[in-house]
Amino acid sequence: MRMSLAQRVLLTWLFTLLFLIMLVLKLDEKAPWNWFLIFIPVWIFDTILLVMLIVKMAGRCKSGFDPRNGSQNMKKKAWYLIAMLLKLAFCLALCAKLQRFTSIRLAYVFIPLWALLLGGMLELGYNIFYVRRD
Question: 123: Cβ–Cβ under 8 A, 6 or more apart, which residues?
Fold first, then answer.
């Protein structure tokens, strides 16, 4: 099952809109919801992305696949998986802090986000400045 670009954009837009509506209601104190409930659209969207990514990565394990053909692609998918897990860790730590489940300092809550941003900058720099010498 493949989704077209328009379907992916619409799905992203809908989940973002739902999250923002719930966030505004919580911040305006119109809804006394738990912070974990506010982030449910983000987690549903991330779960969909993680499942799609894991299925694509698992497809590389089937018999007859030559790993030399897609090793660079597999590294990129591994980075995507790490990035999704860092984003998930940040969202969980943020919700735990906002809900006052933990007394962790806010600087520690943002460590997964900083690692994600640093990794994204390194990947961007690598893709911009890497010159293939064939």
Answer: 79
Q: What does the DSSP 8-state code read for residue 67? A: T
Q: How many domains does the chain have?
A: 1
In tens digits, what is the pLDDT along the chain, a chain of 134 residues?
577 889 889 999 999 999 999 999 999 999 899 999 999 999 999 998 899 888 888 877 776 666 666 566 778 888 899 999 999 999 999 999 999 998 889 999 999 999 999 999 998 988 888 755 54
Q: Residue 59 has what DSSP assignment?
A: G
By CB neighbour count within 10 A (0-12 exposed, 13-18 middle, 19+ buried), where does 110 fall? middle
Domain holding 107, by residue range, is 5-132
Give residue 125's Cα distance to chain centre. 20
61: which DSSP letter? G
